Batch of 2 targets.
Target 1
Amino acid sequence: MKHVKLALKKIAQIVLHILFWSGVLLFYTYFFGFDSEDFSYILSFSLFLMPITIATTYVSIYKLIPDYLFTKQYIRFAFYSFSTFIISAYLIVISVIYGLVYLSNFESSEMAPISRSLLFVAIAVYMVVIIASGYKLLKLNIKHSQTTSKLEKKILEAQLKLKEQELNYLKMQIHPHFLFNTLNTMYGFALKKANETPEMILKLSNLLDYLLYKVDKPFVLLTEDIEHIKDYIELEKMRFNKTLNINFTTNNISEDIKIAPMLLLPFIENSFKHGAIKNGTLDITSNINCKNGAIHFCIENTTSEEEIVKKGIGLTNIKKRLDLLYKDNYDLKIVHKNGIFKVNLILQNI
């Protein structure tokens, strides 16, 4: 089937070329027949010009333009174009001599008026060459634009796939980190045989459901993400008991605002992991606020002056995910000063 299509395409091209050159021959007979009634002379002169025109045109459209002009080899293009012009001009001179010697028996008065002028004969030939070359150049430009567009599309698709793979890889790293911290908390309660263990298992079950079935989505409702942050905080409250003083608030949360899943939770985790208990309590203050089409998230916790907050997997991954999902649309500031570790994150154009 493919071979048949190629054969039909070649046949169509041959037919188009025949029609084009037939049109050129008609143009020549009309052009050189101006103010002349000797049709036999006009047809013979036009037929003699046809091979010159065809050869010059095909050299231009199949060699000079695609091999030198389109590949930006301008010096070679200029050299070979000039050579082609010299040879074709010589052949045009021969055609005028042919019309004078063989068709008019050295009687210039017997020649068609326009065919006597070398300038007009050259204009007729090179006009056809220029028109055909212009069409070829336009066709090559369109083909090049289409090829470039397809290539850009493939590159963009490849980049998107790479980003998706990187995001999936980052999520795979976040999940074990989150589970490790939570299961450690549950293990401590199980050792104590605390009454809160069943409730803790229920909270973890909710978080696991979120982690397994929602986190693979590119975006989730911010309200859902907040609910699971609250579940995590409740788990930590059970672990820290009276040594935890946390104030988590939300303001102006719209029901339709979406956010990348598990984006804010690593910051919450870090506040517990790296926070320091001072005067008997670990103080954590966090707020999520939506205003002017942006999500404002801030969290701060007490930490010791000697504590060096490590760039663990969670925090490193969250920065990478921000770059991939909110590039140029987020502002992240992390400050560790005077015993306070503070994070400010603004997600814009959400």
Note: Confidence is low (pLDDT under 50) at residues 308-312.
Target 2
Amino acid sequence: MIDWPQALVLAVLQGLTEFLPISSSAHLVIPSLLLEWPDQGLAFDIAVHVGTLAAVVFYYRQDLRLISIAWLRSLAGAPSNGDSRTVWYLLLASTPVGLTGAFLGGFVEEHARNLPVIASTTLLFGLLLGFADRRARVTAGSRSLSFGVALFIGVAQALAPVPGVSRSGITITAALLLNMSRKDAARFSFLLSIPVISGSGAVKAWELIQSAEPVNWLLIGCASLVSAITAYACIALFLRLLDRIGMMPFVYYRILLAFILFAVWLA
């Protein structure tokens, strides 16, 4: 059972890293590997993910209202438009990672939560993000969403369960490689987190019910609130600075982090 300081540190880490292209799963695994912290448990995992889910839903509440209304109207026979098609794009792009989690989740948990894997994926996918961002500067990002684009992003997102890959990082990378603008890539990536986090949370909630794990409701409630506030601030600041700073600061951070992790592993 984790204590309050550990819970608050992990909640802040979850909120900061869920939407930045630096891998939240890696940053949550690293403290337990380096500091030998106890596993935070299913209830805590669910709580901090609920917090980040609440943050992105609240931030995009107007967008979600518009696309939901347009989608429901299209189901009732109204002409399809960009807003209604966005829902289908999100559902399509969410499918591959759902299949990965269902069939390979246990393998990833058993074999990929270690320093060599995290260091390697942090470096490799950080460099790929840098390549995509530099390419996006040249191509100027003129491509819009389509079913083919959504499928490509979804297939890329299937790698996200591996610690160090970064769900937001790999989806933004894929979008930039397809010549989407940074803001359009980030918006679709963040909207795509909603079905992904919801599905993952539902699976973990079912596991929690079956496990009968004891729950410290005050601790996980505070952790959820901390992760929500941190995640909301992170989304707002990231989108505000995106065109100004691009992805390279996160690429440099990933490269530095990877070399530190390799050094710790080899020490």
Note: Residues 4-266 form one domain.
